[in-house]
Design a protein that fits this description.
The protein has 1 helix and no strands. It comes from Streptomyces gibsoniae.
Length: 38
């Protein structure tokens, strides 16, 4: 199993989903911090 697949079938979508979820969590944390700050 190669680490870098030249033509990934489902790996790229999974990476995009993980990155999207991480970005969404980061945005939610930023919004909570903005609301919580006096």
């Amino acid at each position: 199993m190669p680490v870098l697949d030249p033509n990934p079938q489902n790996g790229q979508k999974k990476m995009l989903l993980v990155f999207g979820a991480f970005f969404a969590i980061f945005v939610i944390i930023a919004i909570i911090a903005t609301i919580a700050s006096p």
